[in-house]
Design a protein that fits this description.
The structure holds two protein chains of two kinds.
Chain A: H1 7-14, H2 17-39, H3 53-80, H4 84-114, H5 123-144, H6 148-163, H7 165-175, H8 195-228
Chain B: H1 2-29, H2 31-34, H3 40-44, E1 54-60, E2 66-68, E3 71-77, E4 82-88, E5 100-109, E6 112-121, H4 129-137
Parallel strand pairs in B: 4-6
Antiparallel strand pairs in B: 1-3, 1-5, 2-3, 3-4, 5-6
Classes of the chains: A mainly alpha, B alpha+beta.
Chain lengths: ~240, ~140
């Protein structure tokens, strides 16, 4: 049932999860960093700066994924008045924003030696910056309004409007000429990253996903505690 | 209750569809501002030369780079048309023959371009040097 929500039952489970997630995260990150920084080869043209990609690309993927998830959950909270979806979305947003900023910053650091510029107003980079603003507005929407009902409505609408931007980010490099290179990893066509570089990329993506999940669990548990102790607004 | 949910779905779907259409139209209208650079072929089809700053992108033609002191001349090609570029200053490390490049500057005429900034474009291929050598040996 889409309306069913029992904070106590969920909390009994999610309050114990973080330590296990943290454990798996540390192992994955260690292996990922070892692969990315030591074991994987240099690139034929950009040599060692290719290693920035192992942080940049996973961050971008995660921030896109989290926003998409927030938007889908927002549809659910508006359509069915589900009580759980808004709290999940709210708890997901901070790690999405952080990874969005990491993607922008690492892209800039990579761009200077490779392209010869820190920043370009091309479609991919600009749409990614717009996503960061959507994240900011989304997170602020939860803070500026007083009434719980208004918070949920406004934040959900912001997420749904922001969803329009997601395919624009994804396909910007195909629709328009951009300074940013086209995507190398595709589900349907051949991947243009060598196997030896794909391994660290995959492990780092898993590590970042686990980290987001960990931060999400911490935030989510806080929200559940607030719900369980009604009237406890500031925690 | 169910009727209310249906109404909400309808209401939000219309809002969503309207926003998507609006964004689509805006991007379509301003397409020439959304693209980061234009190709030599698009330069050729320009009817008038104005003194607007623009960017031309394509491949650096093989064997076209000519360096004299601080000046560097080369040809940008999209394999249909090409344009001569003159530039003085330093170029990014990745700037080389047969690789992607974006030049920012002004058109002198439809065949030559005076660049004030050169950006190297990286393509979607990532591989270690050994793989490249193996590919070239094939």
């Amino acid at each position: 049932m889409l309306n069913y929500f029992d904070p106590n039952k969920i909390f009994a489970f999610t309050s114990r999860a973080p330590k296990y997630v943290f454990f798996i995260f540390v192992i994955t990150l260690t292996v990922g960093l070892l692969e990315a920084l030591v074991l994987s080869p240099e690139d034929y043209i950009q040599s060692d700066s290719v290693r920035i990609m192992y942080v940049h690309v996973p961050s971008a993927w995660i921030s896109l994924g989290i926003f998409t998830l927030i938007a889908i959950l927002s549809f659910g909270s508006l359509f069915f008045k589900n009580k759980n979806f808004p709290i999940i979305s709210k708890s997901l947003a901070p790690s999405g924003l952080v990874f969005n900023i990491i993607a922008l910053v690492t892209g800039s650091i990579w761009g200077k030696p490779t392209w010869g510029t820190w920043w370009a107003w091309d479609a991919r980079i600009t749409s990614m910056l717009i996503l960061a603003f959507f994240y900011l507005i989304y997170i602020l929407a939860w803070r500026v309004f007083e009434k719980e009902e208004i918070k949920i409505k406004v934040s959900s609408i912001i997420a749904i409007l922001g969803l329009v931007n997601i395919p624009i980010i994804k396909y910007s490099v195909d629709w328009w000429s951009t300074l940013h290179q086209p995507s190398s990893v595709n589900l349907l066509s051949k991947t243009s990253i060598d196997q030896s570089m794909l391994v660290p990329l995959a492990i780092m993506t898993a590590a970042f996903a686990l980290f987001s999940f960990l931060i999400f669990l911490m935030k989510y548990n806080t929200e559940l505690i607030k719900l369980k102790n009604k009237g406890l607004d500031r925690l | 209750m169910v009727r209310k949910v249906k109404l909400r779905i309808l209401f939000l779907s219309f809002i969503f569809a309207t926003v998507v259409l609006t964004i689509f139209l805006i991007l379509k209208t301003f397409e020439e501002n959304v693209v980061y650079f234009i190709s030599p072929t698009e330069i050729k089809s320009l009817t008038e030369l104005d003194n607007k700053k623009l960017r031309v992108g394509g491949m650096v033609k093989k064997g076209s780079i000519l360096t004299t002191q601080n000046k560097i001349d080369f040809i940008i090609t999209d394999f249909k048309n090409e344009i001569k570029v003159t530039y003085s200053g330093s170029v990014p490390n990745l700037f080389s023959e047969g690789k992607g490049v974006v030049a920012e500057g002004y058109l002198k005429d439809l065949n030559s371009f005076k660049a004030s900034k050169i950006l190297a474009k990286h393509d979607e291929n990532y591989m270690p040097p050994e793989v490249l050598r193996a590919l070239e040996d094939k």
